[in-house]
Amino acid sequence: MFDRLREKLGDFRKSIDEKLKASPQEPVQEKAEAKVEEKIEAPKAEAPAEAPRSGILDRAKAITRGEVILSEKDLEGPLWELEMALLESDVALPVAESIIDRIRKDLSGQHKKFLRSTGDIAEDALRDAILTILSAHTLDFDDYVKGHDKPVIVVFTGVNGTGKTTTIAKLAERLKESNVGVVIAAGDTFRAGAIEQLQKHADRLGVKMIKHDQGSDPAAVIYDAVAYAKSNKKDVVLADTAGRLHTNVNLMEQLKKISRIIRPDLVIFVDEAIAGNDAVERAKLFNDAVPISGSILTKADADSKGGAAISIAHITGKPILFLGVGQEYKDLRKFDPDWFVERLLER
Ligand SMILES: Nc1nc2c(ncn2[C@@H]2O[C@H](COP(=O)(O)OP(=O)(O)OP(=O)(O)O)[C@@H](O)[C@H]2O)c(=O)[nH]1
Fold first, then answer.
1. pTM of the model
2. Which residue of 18, 157, 162, 206 is most buried, as measured by CB atoms within 10 A?
3. Which domains does the chain have, with CATH numbers?
4. Could you tell me which residue ranges the SRP54-type proteins GTP-binding domain spans (predicted)?
């Protein structure tokens, strides 16, 4: 999973190390240090506060202290390569730029002790930049369900065939395992076969499903499912909706209507991790139409590049809640930013 992005992030680390090996800034011995310090520590020689921190004098002083200063020039090449690597791994341009800016600010002009390799320092900056994006907004689905008034109404949105139905079944299984009462609403009344497909999952899981005929009003189906949950003391309503292209105005209007009438507690956008930048674009448009609470990325077990997760979190400003990692009900992994970043940076 995410092998390609991991490989490329590893290259960034090496590239920074190599860059600095090419223009070594060796720490100087204690004795020599005293001399140089004497010379350059004269009060007049002190650089004004606003002077560039990576000036020659600053560099000399840092070297005597066994530090390295990373200049913008040192970083230029590796950061360019990193930006290209992020773009090739499905990180959207504004997101890649924001990561690069953050790393540049974090590293350039910084005095770093020689205790660790510069590659490690660069890796820390990269880790911070990605974690900041992924952890900016958090939502723990299980805690939310536990703490919220019942029934909790969850509506799923997204395009066709991304794994929405399977994801609803996986979540139903997850909730059932924690003794949470679940009702499924067959809100995809548009696609032939969608109701039967969901019914099969509900039967297999032993979960109640509320359905109307194909072509009926999805808001009415979900409304009935909520009424059922209230009168049968069920905790959560998981409502499917028809897969739709964000360009389909009527279906997007229908989604807005569902949202207006049902007033869901959570709207979850489902798309494929492997869809890359297409998924990012769709997440933005769905979020603009009916604001989402978070996203679930399916098929992360397939050859996904990993960048979509970072981009979707950044562009929607909403958390990634889960990753689909296979076709079985158990194949749903809670999205943990630390776990994700560690996987990307593991060597
Ligand atoms: N490998 C893998 N396959 C998945 C995952 N999630 C779903 N699938 C498969 O993707 C295919 C489509 O999933 P569905 O759940 O039918 O898709 P859908 O979004 O409900 O489709 P529509 O009903 O057309 O909107 C199925 O074959 C699923 O088994 C996943 O996390 N990993």
1. 0.84
2. 157
3. 3-135 (1.20.120.140), 141-335 (3.40.50.300)
4. 319-332
